[in-house]
Protein 1
Amino acid sequence: MRLICSLNSSRHAFLMSYIYCSQFAEPKRIIFLVDTGCTTTTIAPNDVHRLEINYDVLEESTPSQTVDRVVIPRILMDVDLFFAGRKGFLNMQRTILKFHLAQIDVIYPSPREDDEQEHPPPLARSVSMLGMDVLKHFRKWHFKNHELLLDS
C-alpha cells in the first residue's frame, strides 16, 4: 500500500484525509502535516472549530510541550482516518486506506492574557499533525518530484 503526500515549498509533507468519529454524522475532510516528531495524531485548534468537535465533552490527556507553551490536549476516542492510497506492484490501483485509532489528541487554544488580542498564538494558526501512531505502518519512505511516498 502507498500513500502519496504533497510537499510544499519548504518541503513539508501534507496529506489529505477524511476523519470520522461518533461526534460526526459522516466523515469530514482534514489535511495533516506529516510529523515524525509527533507520537499521537493531533487535531489543531483551527480544525477543532472547522470540524465542529465538541471539545467540552472530551477527557483531558497528558500535557504536551508545543512551540510556545505546554498544552493539555483532550482525547477524541475511536477515530477512523481514511486516505486515498495505491495498491499493487506494477499497475498500482486506487484504494482507500483506513486506520482505526483508539484515540487521538485534540488541542484547543488556551488564552494568553498578555497579548492574545494583538498577536494570536502560533498554536491557533497551526495545522493538524499525522503522528507516528499512523506513520509507523509505513516502512519505506522516499521523495519523488514534489511528493513524499510512504510504502507499507
Protein 2
Amino acid sequence: MKIRPCSLIVIFYFFFPFILFSQDSLQIKKETLTSNSIKNNEENSLDTINLKPAAVFLYGDTLFLVNAPLGTTSIVQRAEKISSKLKSITKVYDQTKDTIYLKQGNDFINIMFNDEVAYILTSNDSERSNTSLLQLANKQMHILKDSLNSKTSNLTLEEKFTLAGYFLLSLLGLVVFLKLVQ
C-alpha cells in the first residue's frame, strides 16, 4: 500500500497535538550546578555565621526552605537530600493508601511517610524560622501533602479502561478517515 503525501500531512496534523500533550505531567526539571553555585555551597558549609537558606524542590516547585544544618550535613546538602527523598516518595505515593504524619521526639520532629522518615525538623529549624517546632512541622507537612496530592494522579481501574477505550476509538476513527481519504 502506497501512502500519498496528503495522507502523511493528515497523519502529522492528527498526531502532532497528541505528541505534545502526551508527555508525563510530572516532568523533572534538572538543576545544573555552575562553578559559582559549587563555590557558594562550599562557602555555606564552611561559614556558620552567614547561613543562607536552601530551597527544597519537588518537580521544579519550591516547597519550603531549609534554614539550618543537621549535624555535619550543610544546609544545601540537607535540602538536596530532602528533595531527593520527596522525589522518590512521589513514585510510590498513593493518596488513598499512604499516610504522612508527624512523629515528635525530644528536640526534633520527624515528617513520616508511612513507617519511614521523609525528613527531620529540629529546634534549630524552628528558631531560624521564628516559629515553634510544631507549627513549622505542621506547615511543612501540609505543604508536602498538598504538593503530593496535586503531583500524583491515582486512576481507578475503571478510569484506566475508559482512557484506553477513548484511545482505541480515536485510533479506529483515524483508520476510517484514512480509508475514506484513499
Protein 3
Amino acid sequence: MKNPRVRNYPASYSTPVDTNEILEFSLGEMLATVELNQSNTGWTSEWWVSRLNTETAQAAGFLVIPVFGGSREVALRRVSHISTDVLELIEQASGGVAPAVSSGDRTKHIAHHLEAFIGLLDPEGEVVTNTALMYEFLETFQTPAPAKLIAEVLGMDSVRTIQDRLDRARDRGLLARPGRGKNWTG
C-alpha cells in the first residue's frame, strides 16, 4: 500500500485558527485537508475530503477524529499513520457530504479543495464552462456564497464577474436556475 504524500502549509496560507497549518493527504483521486486542534484530552483532527477527477469532482466527507497524545508532533505522526485508512474508508463509503460542524474555518479547507480542482480544469477551457464546473463542485460542499469564494481563489476583485459568468452558464443550460433542474441539450 502506497503512503499518501503530506504537505504542510505555513500559517500565512490559512486564516489563523488554533493551528498553524493545514495538512494535505492524497491517495489516488482522494484529497484530504486536515486541521489539528488542541482539546482537553489531546488533539482532534478535522478531515475535509473530496474526490477530484475531471468527471466526478465532489465533496466526499467530513470527519472529526480524536487523536490522543500530548504534543503536536505525536498527533501529526498518528494522523499520518491513519491517513491511508481514512481516505480508503471515505472513498468506499462516500455518497456526498453533510454540512460540517467544525470548530475551524471551513472556508480555508474548501478553498484548498477548490484550488486543487482548478488544477484539473483545462487552462485553455472556456471561462464560463470552467466557472460553472467550479460552482457545481462548491455546491457539493454546500458552500455559502460560492461565487465569492471562486473570486477569492482566482484572485479577482469583483464577485460580479463570477456572477455574470454563472448567469451566462445558466443561459446556456450548464447550470440550473434557482428552483429549476438542469436542462442539458448535448
Protein 4
Amino acid sequence: MRIRFESVICFFALLTCASSLFAKTHPLDVALEGPWIYLEDAQFDDGSGHTKPVLVVMAPNSTGHNLPIFSTGRGFQILPSGHVYCLGDTTTCAPGTPSQSKLVSGNYPDLRFVKVKTMPGWKWYQSITQDSWILILPMPDSASNNGVDHITLEPGFAAPAVPNGTSETIGSIGMYLHYADWDTSKLTLFRCADHKVDRCDNPQAAGAPQDNYGTLSISMTVVPETDTTYYPSRCEYHVRAAYHAMILFLDSTPLNSGRNRNQSQGYIAIHRNRIPPAPLCRWQRVTPRPMRRNCLGRSSLISGRSTPRTKKV
C-alpha cells in the first residue's frame, strides 16, 4: 500500500505541474497616446489565404509632437515615416485569432471616440504618405479610454465656442488595448514590405524586440515648451495642429473651403473652464487662415471604419 500511495502522490504532482504549465498566459496592455486615428479592418489578409479583423492606427506628423516611440522600457523611435508597421510576436504580423471582430469596451466604460467619415473608395493601405505612420495591431479582447477631456467640435469659425455649452462633449485622448493572452513573451514591431503593405508578408523587424512585462507604450508625446508664459504653451496649439492634420489625412479638401468630408466637426473648440486671457491666444495659425482668439482643449481621438474590400488571392 505504501508504494501505491506514493505513486498516486507523484502522479497527482505531475498533473498539477502540467496543468500549471499549460495555463500560463502573457496578458498585455497596449497604451496608445498621441494623434492616432483608429480604423477597424474586418478583412485583413493574413497571407495564408484567410482574413481576420485587425485594428489599424494612423498618425500624420503633427506640429508640436515628437516622433512615435515603441517601448516597454528601453524602446526605440519608429523610423522612417512613410511606411506601414505591424505589431507581432517573434515571426508573425498580428498573430492569433481575435476574440472580437471590432473594438469593444467589455467591462470598461464606453469608448468616447469622434466618429468620422472617409472618402468613397478610401483604403488605408493606399493612404500612407511620407510624413505619416500606419500601424497594424491585433484586434484586442477589449479597449478602454486612456484619459478623456471636454471638447466642442465645430464646422468653422462662425460662432465662438461656449464653455459648458450644450454642444460640449467628452472625447477620448488616448486608448488602452487589452489582450488576455499574448502568444509569446516578446513584442516585435515589423516593417511591412512596401509592395504588400495590406498583407504585411515577410515583414522585417524595425527594432529590437521588446520583452512583454505587461504594458507596451506606443506614443507620440508633446514637445514641451521651455517658456510656459509664451502663448502657444498656454493655448495648447499642438492640439489644434494635430486635430486638423488628422482630419486632413482622411480628406485633403481644405477646411476653409467648407467642403471637407468631415466639415461638421472640422475644428476642435474650447475646453471647459480653460479660458486664459485672450491676448495669450491671439491669431494663432494652424490652417491657411488664422484661428480666433479662443484657446482650445486637448485633442479627441478619431475613429473610423474600413469599407469592405475583396479578398486578395
